Amino acid sequence: MTDKCKTIPSPVGALTLVASDAGLRAILWEKDRPGRVKLGALEEAPDHPVLREAERQLGDYFAGKRARFDVPLDFRGTDFQKSVWAALLTIPFGETRSYGAIARQIGRPSAVRAVGAANGRNPISIIAPCHRVIGANGALTGFAGGLAAKETLLAIERGAGKA
Protein backbone atom coordinates (compact mmCIF):
# COMPACT_ATOMS: atom_id res chain seq x y z
CA MET A 1 0.00 0.00 0.00
CA THR A 2 1.26 3.47 -0.87
CA ASP A 3 1.80 5.90 1.99
CA LYS A 4 0.47 9.44 1.69
CA CYS A 5 2.57 12.57 2.12
CA LYS A 6 2.43 16.32 2.31
CA THR A 7 5.16 18.92 2.80
CA ILE A 8 4.64 21.80 5.21
CA PRO A 9 6.70 24.87 6.12
CA SER A 10 8.05 25.17 9.67
CA PRO A 11 10.54 27.23 11.68
CA VAL A 12 13.05 24.37 11.17
CA GLY A 13 12.59 24.12 7.41
CA ALA A 14 10.21 22.24 5.16
CA LEU A 15 8.94 19.01 6.74
CA THR A 16 7.47 16.13 4.78
CA LEU A 17 4.76 14.34 6.71
CA VAL A 18 4.10 10.71 5.79
CA ALA A 19 1.05 8.72 6.87
CA SER A 20 -0.53 5.34 6.45
CA ASP A 21 -4.20 4.73 7.13
CA ALA A 22 -3.14 3.66 10.67
CA GLY A 23 -1.31 6.87 11.58
CA LEU A 24 1.67 9.16 11.08
CA ARG A 25 4.65 7.16 9.79
CA ALA A 26 7.33 9.80 9.42
CA ILE A 27 8.35 13.43 9.59
CA LEU A 28 11.21 13.91 7.15
CA TRP A 29 13.63 16.82 7.25
CA GLU A 30 14.37 19.01 4.25
CA LYS A 31 17.93 17.65 3.99
CA ASP A 32 17.23 14.22 5.49
CA ARG A 33 19.80 11.51 4.86
CA PRO A 34 18.43 9.15 2.18
CA GLY A 35 17.45 5.84 3.71
CA ARG A 36 17.41 7.10 7.33
CA VAL A 37 13.73 6.17 7.37
CA LYS A 38 12.62 3.19 5.29
CA LEU A 39 9.59 4.10 3.23
CA GLY A 40 8.02 2.74 0.09
CA ALA A 41 6.29 4.70 -2.63
CA LEU A 42 4.76 8.00 -1.56
CA GLU A 43 1.72 9.74 -2.99
CA GLU A 44 0.89 13.41 -2.40
CA ALA A 45 -2.33 13.60 -0.42
CA PRO A 46 -2.63 17.01 1.26
CA ASP A 47 -6.17 16.27 2.46
CA HIS A 48 -5.38 12.93 4.16
CA PRO A 49 -6.93 13.24 7.66
CA VAL A 50 -3.82 12.08 9.55
CA LEU A 51 -1.63 14.51 7.61
CA ARG A 52 -4.04 17.40 8.18
CA GLU A 53 -4.19 16.66 11.91
CA ALA A 54 -0.40 16.31 12.19
CA GLU A 55 0.03 19.64 10.38
CA ARG A 56 -2.45 21.32 12.75
CA GLN A 57 -0.79 19.92 15.88
CA LEU A 58 2.72 20.79 14.65
CA GLY A 59 1.53 24.33 13.87
CA ASP A 60 0.24 24.65 17.44
CA TYR A 61 3.54 23.28 18.78
CA PHE A 62 5.64 25.75 16.77
CA ALA A 63 3.36 28.58 17.94
CA GLY A 64 4.02 27.59 21.57
CA LYS A 65 0.43 26.45 22.09
CA ARG A 66 0.92 22.66 22.32
CA ALA A 67 3.06 20.54 24.63
CA ARG A 68 1.53 17.14 23.81
CA PHE A 69 0.62 15.45 20.56
CA ASP A 70 -2.21 12.99 20.15
CA VAL A 71 -2.11 12.27 16.42
CA PRO A 72 -2.06 8.47 15.89
CA LEU A 73 1.44 7.09 15.22
CA ASP A 74 2.43 4.14 13.02
CA PHE A 75 6.00 3.25 14.04
CA ARG A 76 7.72 0.60 11.94
CA GLY A 77 11.05 -0.78 13.04
CA THR A 78 12.66 -3.48 15.11
CA ASP A 79 11.35 -4.29 18.57
CA PHE A 80 14.44 -2.60 20.05
CA GLN A 81 13.92 0.55 17.96
CA LYS A 82 10.25 0.69 18.92
CA SER A 83 11.19 0.41 22.61
CA VAL A 84 13.55 3.38 22.24
CA TRP A 85 10.95 5.40 20.32
CA ALA A 86 8.32 4.60 22.96
CA ALA A 87 10.77 5.85 25.63
CA LEU A 88 11.17 9.12 23.70
CA LEU A 89 7.43 9.68 24.02
CA THR A 90 7.80 9.68 27.83
CA ILE A 91 10.31 12.57 27.98
CA PRO A 92 8.34 15.51 29.37
CA PHE A 93 7.95 18.65 27.27
CA GLY A 94 10.86 21.04 27.84
CA GLU A 95 13.06 18.41 29.53
CA THR A 96 15.99 16.39 28.24
CA ARG A 97 17.39 12.92 28.85
CA SER A 98 20.75 11.33 28.09
CA TYR A 99 21.20 8.30 25.87
CA GLY A 100 22.26 6.42 29.01
CA ALA A 101 19.04 7.35 30.79
CA ILE A 102 17.01 6.02 27.85
CA ALA A 103 19.07 2.80 27.83
CA ARG A 104 18.38 2.32 31.54
CA GLN A 105 14.68 3.13 31.07
CA ILE A 106 14.24 0.35 28.50
CA GLY A 107 16.15 -2.12 30.67
CA ARG A 108 19.28 -2.22 28.50
CA PRO A 109 21.78 -0.08 30.46
CA SER A 110 24.78 -1.18 28.39
CA ALA A 111 23.08 -0.42 25.06
CA VAL A 112 23.86 3.30 25.00
CA ARG A 113 25.31 3.25 21.48
CA ALA A 114 22.40 1.16 20.17
CA VAL A 115 20.00 3.65 21.76
CA GLY A 116 21.86 6.41 19.89
CA ALA A 117 21.52 4.52 16.62
CA ALA A 118 17.79 3.90 17.17
CA ASN A 119 17.35 7.55 18.13
CA GLY A 120 18.99 8.56 14.84
CA ARG A 121 16.52 6.41 12.93
CA ASN A 122 13.47 7.78 14.74
CA PRO A 123 11.04 8.27 11.86
CA ILE A 124 8.67 10.63 13.68
CA SER A 125 10.99 13.45 14.80
CA ILE A 126 9.54 16.27 16.91
CA ILE A 127 6.44 14.28 17.94
CA ALA A 128 8.62 11.41 19.23
CA PRO A 129 11.03 13.99 20.66
CA CYS A 130 14.51 12.72 19.81
CA HIS A 131 15.60 16.38 20.01
CA ARG A 132 15.24 16.03 23.80
CA VAL A 133 18.05 13.43 23.94
CA ILE A 134 21.47 14.89 24.69
CA GLY A 135 24.94 13.68 25.56
CA ALA A 136 25.77 12.60 29.11
CA ASN A 137 27.73 15.85 29.55
CA GLY A 138 24.70 17.94 28.55
CA ALA A 139 26.01 18.70 25.06
CA LEU A 140 23.74 18.66 22.05
CA THR A 141 24.65 15.70 19.88
CA GLY A 142 23.78 14.54 16.37
CA PHE A 143 20.30 15.16 15.06
CA ALA A 144 18.78 14.25 11.69
CA GLY A 145 17.45 17.79 11.27
CA GLY A 146 20.81 19.32 12.19
CA LEU A 147 21.98 20.82 15.48
CA ALA A 148 20.49 24.24 14.65
CA ALA A 149 17.03 22.62 14.35
CA LYS A 150 17.60 20.76 17.63
CA GLU A 151 18.50 24.06 19.34
CA THR A 152 15.40 25.73 17.84
CA LEU A 153 13.07 22.96 19.05
CA LEU A 154 14.52 23.06 22.57
CA ALA A 155 14.23 26.87 22.57
CA ILE A 156 10.57 26.66 21.49
CA GLU A 157 9.92 24.33 24.41
CA ARG A 158 11.79 26.54 26.90
CA GLY A 159 9.78 29.57 25.79
CA ALA A 160 6.35 27.99 25.41
CA GLY A 161 3.68 27.75 28.06
CA LYS A 162 2.52 24.25 28.91
CA ALA A 163 -0.44 23.65 26.65
How are the SSEs ordered, and which strands pair?
Layout: E1 3-8, E2 15-19, E3 24-29, E4 42-44, H1 49-62, H2 79-88, E5 97-98, H3 99-105, H4 112-120, E6 133-134, H5 147-159
Helix pairs in contact: 3-4
CATH architecture of the largest domain: Orthogonal Bundle
Number of domains: 2
Portion of residues within helices: 25-40%
First and last CA, distance: 36 Å
Biggest pleated-sheet summary: 4 strands, mixed
Q: What's the overall geometry?
A: globular
Just give the CATH class of the largest domain. Answer: Mainly Alpha
Main location: cytoplasm
Keywords: Cytoplasm, DNA damage, DNA repair, Methyltransferase, Transferase
Protein name: Methylated-DNA--protein-cysteine methyltransferase
EC number: 2.1.1.63
